[in-house]
Amino acid sequence: MDGELLMDLDNDVHDEGNGFDLPLELIPSSFNEVESTKNLEVNADYIDYAKLENEYQNPALSYRLLHMFEVCVNRRPEIAKVINRIHSKNSIDVEFYRTFATALEKHKNADPSKSWPTIDTAWIQTTEDEVQAMTERESANLKKAQDEGIKV
């Protein structure tokens, strides 16, 4: 068998930075530009929320739903209700909820005829208080452990 037909595993010709790369002059300037999704709008026929809830846990689920809320024009009120339900049950991320509330108000003002959910401001205050208490409790536990000489 001819040695030229065998592949040389140590030959790194196909690795990054090889001599076969295209010169930058041949690559169009728009090649590396990322298309913006800010103005992306889609119409979704059906969204399987149960499947999403099984596949994703918070915070990934909340952020996935927030993106869907922004782009799925025909399902915005429905998605907003799901975010409201899921996030208030499964999360303590107040900043996310505020971001969602801002986006929701924007869409409510743009189309007030639809059935939009209401933002739970009591949840925001209660959750902030719980997080503050949890932070203080854990800080006290840490300080106590350090005072007792336990390495943390």
- Enumerate the spans where pLDDT stays under 50 for 5 or more consecutive residues: none
Secondary-structure-derived class:
mainly alpha
**Average residue-wise pLDDT:** 81
Order of helices and strands: HHHHH
Strand content: under 5%
What's the number of helices?
5
- Major beta-sheet overview: none
Roughly how many Å apart are the termini?
Answer: 64 Å
Helix content: 40-55%
User: So what's the overall shape?
Assistant: extended
Extended strand count = 0
Rg, alpha carbons: 26 Å
Essential attributes:
single chain, 152 residues, mainly alpha, 5 helices, extended
Account of the 3D structure:
The chain has helices at about 50-55, 60-70, 75-90, 95-110, 120-145. With about 150 residues, it is mainly alpha-helical. The protein has a domain at about 50-120. It is extended. The termini are far apart. The relative contact order is 0.08.
Helices and strands, with pairings:
Layout: H1 49-55, H2 60-71, H3 76-90, H4 94-110, H5 121-147
Summarize the structure in short.
The chain has 152 residues and is mostly helical. It has five helices and no strands.
